[in-house]
Design a protein that fits this description.
Elements lengths: L15 E5 L4 E6 L10 H11 L4 E8 L5 E8 H17 L8 E3 L5 H13 L3 E3 L3 H4 L5 H10 L3 E6 H11 L5 E6 L8 E2 H5 L5 H9 L5 E6 L9 E5 H14 L2 H4 L3 E4 L6 H14 L2 E4 L9 H10 L4 E4 L1 H11 L3 H10 L2 E4 L6 H15 L4 E3 L1 E3 L6 E4 L9 E5 L4 E6 L4 E6 L11 H6 L7 E9 L9 E6 L4 E2 L5 E2 L1 H12 L3 E7 L6 E7 L2 H6 L7 H6 L1 H17 L7 E6 L19 H7 L1 H8 L11
Parallel strand pairs: 3-13, 5-6, 5-7, 7-8, 8-9, 12-13, 14-15, 15-16, 27-28
Antiparallel strand pairs: 1-2, 2-20, 3-4, 10-11, 17-18, 18-19, 19-23, 20-21, 21-22, 22-23, 24-25, 26-27
Length: about 625
């Protein structure tokens, strides 16, 4: 069998240095050194505004009164620089600071981007907050926690009609509210246009020059799946160093004009640091995608990808699954998306092998070669970019090697190996939480990630590492046998594709492993029932039961021991909820939160007390 042909892609780091430490400890780093990087991200924005003033920086489709989207509204680098300077002056005039930062409630848009850049110039941290805290949450507890933690001097939202209720409930009367559209009854607000109209003075340049590597750029709140969210400090050094690390690991970012079509939210490090940052750093163009990998919004993403050809493309596994399905029959999507893209990149969860296979099949059919599907490992606290693959032959679970300038510490945790990080891209800690900060760093100053890894090939360390789950998610059966949750979850999702969204494993201190399955909407088609049928009826239908019986039977046949054998499985009609911390707004499931809030279901599953429990036959 001949090796598959891949579209050319250069991997920047392919060799590593490994050294031994104390018993059970190893250190790993890239052989390639980290090159110089700027003291502040605004240096890069200013550079592109000067050398490519008319280049398109960012675009977003106009929001229509009907709720749909229209033509692209665009901002060039020169326009962004001028607008950001005016906004910076308005922030300086208000005396905002690290103690009184800017909180942004709403999703990605042009005003959000310009406000963030204005904050960068003024040296005022900004806090992009999950829109779900304002729009989906019913109690606003997480939003109140964010506001209490950072004590903002200004809160921004795109429009009064959507965010007014949350602002009224959670934002103190003494905090200025800035809105792009609309006003609030009984409350004074400021129009975003007023910020843009502020004439920049010499104070702006002075403020920008006063910022440096230790200046706090933003606070990014972790998902808060098991506790209230923590405010991760992001400095200029972190962001600039990480962008240079990304460029050296992924030379494609600067080898040709960078074009992104991206929906990933800026309140997360993937969208807000990784992707938005790479555009600013490398002088790229970002088309904001108002779609999302959900049944209601995926059509917008596909529309944008039919029109705009990205040079690299980033998404989460559910997004790539939807794209893979669409490409089977959508000729225009295949033609445009595959016309110049050099690299796909997924993160956030495991990508099922059938999705890879489907993508490769469409690519080979359309362009006669495969597009490399890359991935890696990182977290909000690492900037996020930390580990990246080394070659095109990536398999599910592969991570790769450390990026230049960052040291990795591999620590034996009693059957699992934890990966720890130290480098210029690592956060100093959590804002106003010294106890939590100290708890996450070891005695050598390495950040303890909680992620477990193993070697792709123990005989060739240059291939790098493979994901081995989250240490905190793993548990023991009553027999003392450890269950490695991450790899087993991925195996179940793959076996049940495309009908499994995610899985939560059960069986802590019990005799056997169980699985609670969150199905995808695709089960509705499988069931053959009316599209409006209750999900409980869909999951109880004969075709759905037959499919999942086949899944658990196949899993049982391939299991090698009790820790890898699913002995019982149930299907959950109620999706995971944000308010209970069971899922983030990016779609990542949290095992512990689901187990806590659905303890009765777990107990019933193992007591044979549910209406339908599937077991291997």
């Amino acid at each position: 069998m001949t090796d598959p042909k891949f579209r050319a892609l250069t991997f920047g780091v392919t060799r590593v240095e490994l050294r031994d430490g104390a018993p059970g400890v190893h250190y790993l780093r890239a052989k390639q050194a980290l090159l110089d990087y700027p003291a502040r991200m605004t240096d890069r924005l200013q550079h592109w505004a000067q050398v490519a003033p008319d280049r398109l920086f960012i675009a977003r489709r106009e929001k229509l009164a009907s709720g749909g989207t229209g033509d692209w509204q665009t901002v060039t680098y020169a326009q962004a620089w001028a607008s950001a300077r005016s906004i910076a002056q308005s922030l300086i005039n208000r005396g905002l600071s690290v103690e009184r930062p800017v909180v942004i409630l709403s999703e990605n848009d042009l005003e959000h981007a310009l406000l963030a850049l204005g904050c960068l110039i003024a040296g005022v941290p900004f806090v992009p907050t999950s829109p779900a805290y304002s729009l989906i949450s019913q109690d606003y507890d997480k939003l109140r926690h964010v506001l209490k933690t950072v004590t903002p001097g200004l809160v921004f939202a795109a429009d009064a009609s959507r965010y007014g209720k949350a602002i009224t409930a959670a934002v103190g009367a003494d905090i200025e509210v800035v809105l792009t559209r609309g006003t609030l009854d009984g409350r004074s607000t400021t129009s975003f246009a007023e910020l843009l109209a502020t004439p920049a003075t010499t104070q702006v340049e002075a403020a920008m020059q006063a910022t440096g590597p230790d200046t706090i750029v933003k606070f990014l709140f972790t998902s808060g799946s098991t506790k209230l969210p923590k405010a991760v400090i992001n400095t200029q050094r972190m962001w600039c160093a990480n962008q240079q690390q990304m460029l050296q690991s992924m030379p494609v970012l600067a080898s040709e004009p960078l074009v992104l079509v991206d929906w990933l939210p800026w309140n997360h490090t993937f969208g807000g640091n990784h992707n938005f940052g790479m555009v600013v750093y490398n002088g790229g163009t970002l088309y904001i995608d108002d779609g999302k990998p959900t049944p209601a919004l995926m059509a917008e993403t596909l529309r944008n990808l039919r029109e705009i050809a990205p040079s690299v493309y980033f998404n989460v596994p559910t997004g790539f699954e939807a794209i893979a399905n669409a490409m089977k029959t959508d000729d225009v999507l295949r033609k445009t998306l595959l016309s110049r893209v050099k690299m796909f990149f997924y993160a956030g969860a495991s990508l099922a092998q059938p999705v890879w296979d489907s993508l490769y099949e469409s690519q080979e059919k359309e362009v006669g070669e495969r597009i490399v599907m890359t991935t890696g490992l990182g977290m909000t606290e690492s900037g996020p970019f930390a580990i990246f693959v080394t070659n095109p032959n990536v398999k599910a679970g592969d991570l790769g090697v450390p990026t230049p300038g960052m040291d990795i510490k591999l620590v034996d945790m009693g059957g699992k190996t934890e990966v720890r990080y130290r480098g210029p891209n690592i956060t100093p800690g959590y804002w106003r939480d010294p106890k939590e900060s100290a708890a996450h760093f070891d005695e050598e100053g390495f950040f303890c990630s909680g992620d477990a890894v193993r070697w792709i090939d123990e005989t060739d360390v240059h291939q790098g590492l493979q994901f081995d789950g989250r240490i905190a998610e793993d548990f023991k059966l009553a027999t003392g046998t450890f269950v490695s949750v991450g790899p087993l979850r991925a195996k179940i999702v793959t076996a049940g594709a495309p009908y499994i969204q995610d899985v939560v494993l059960t069986g802590i201190n019990l005799k056997e492993v169980g699985a609670m399955v969150f199905p995808t909407q695709a089960v509705r088609h499988l069931s053959g029932l009316d599209a409006r049928a209750p999900m409980a009826d869909v999951l109880a239908s004969a075709p759905v039961i037959a499919h999942f019986q086949q899944v658990i039977d196949e899993l049982a046949r391939s299991a090698t021991g009790s820790a890898g054998r699913i002995a019982r499985l149930c299907l959950l009609a109620e999706p995971p909820t944000l308010d209970r911390g069971e899922v983030t707004d990016k779609g990542s499931i949290n095992q512990r939160a689901v187990l806590t809030h659905r303890a009765e279901t777990v107990e019933a599953l193992h007591a044979d007390a549910l209406h339908t429990i599937l077991k291997p036959q």
